[in-house]
């Protein structure tokens, strides 16, 4: 079963949107396999955003993601990587369609509520980076 890494960013946590975001993915039919509220170290933030190291907004990105707790999750399901990205909407909330998470709740590209892996390679890398082996609980539905 495909898996992806989804994170409610500090703005989403502080605006009380953890439950809303979990609910959207649950109602879609995906299942959460791991989840934790945590404060992000600068080291983890820099590793997570390594591909943006040369971008002018890299410092801002790291400052923001370390500014308050995030809710980090692993979600599983058919085509979950691409479908979760559709459900989140475009990176810039001003371009994200209504009905998507960023379209409904986001205002700026920096504070865009939620992050989701953009490819199977990113998903694999990000899940390994954010969770250790004991925190990853794979399970099948029995009901
Ligand atoms: P995310 O999916 O977490 O991955 C990279 C993040 O960079 C992206 O969401 C945006 O929040 C952020 N980002 C992209 N472009 C800009 C920008 N021009 N200024 C600030 N942040 C940006």
Number of domains: 1
Give the percentage of residues in beta strands.
Answer: 15-25%
Helix content: 25-40%
Going by CATH, the architecture would be 2-Layer Sandwich
By secondary-structure content and strand pairing, the structural class works out as: alpha+beta
Unreliable spans: none
As a whole number of angstroms, the C-alpha radius of gyration is 14 Å
Largest sheet: 4 strands, antiparallel
Order of helix and strand elements from N to C terminus: EHHEHHEHHEH
What's the tally of helices?
Answer: 7
Bound molecules: adenosine-3',5'-cyclic-monophosphate
Given the C-alpha coordinates, what overall shape results? globular
EC number: 2.7.4.6
Active site: 115 (pros-phosphohistidine intermediate)
InterPro entries: NDK-like_dom (IPR034907), NDK-like_dom_sf (IPR036850), Nucleoside_diP_kinase (IPR001564), Nucleoside_diP_kinase_AS (IPR023005)
Subcellular location: Cytoplasm
Short account of what is shown:
GO terms for molecular function: ATP binding; metal ion binding; nucleoside diphosphate kinase activity. This protein is of the alpha+beta class and 143 residues long.
């Amino acid at each position: 079963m495909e898996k992806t890494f989804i994170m409610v960013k500090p703005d989403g946590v502080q605006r009380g949107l953890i439950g809303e975001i979990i609910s959207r993915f649950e109602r879609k039919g995906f299942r959460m396999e791991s989840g934790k509220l945590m404060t992000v170290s600068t080291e983890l933030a820099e590793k997570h955003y390594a591909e943006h190291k040369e971008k002018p907004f890299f410092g801002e990105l790291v400052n923001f993601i370390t500014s308050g707790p995030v809710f980090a999750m692993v979600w599983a399901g058919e085509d979950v990587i691409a479908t979760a990205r559709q459900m989140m909407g475009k990176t810039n909330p001003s371009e994200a369609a209504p009905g998507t998470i960023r379209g409904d709740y986001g205002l700026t590209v920096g504070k865009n509520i939620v992050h989701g892996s953009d490819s199977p390679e990113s998903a694999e890398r990000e899940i390994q980076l954010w969770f250790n082996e004991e925190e990853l609980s794979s399970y099948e539905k029995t009901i």
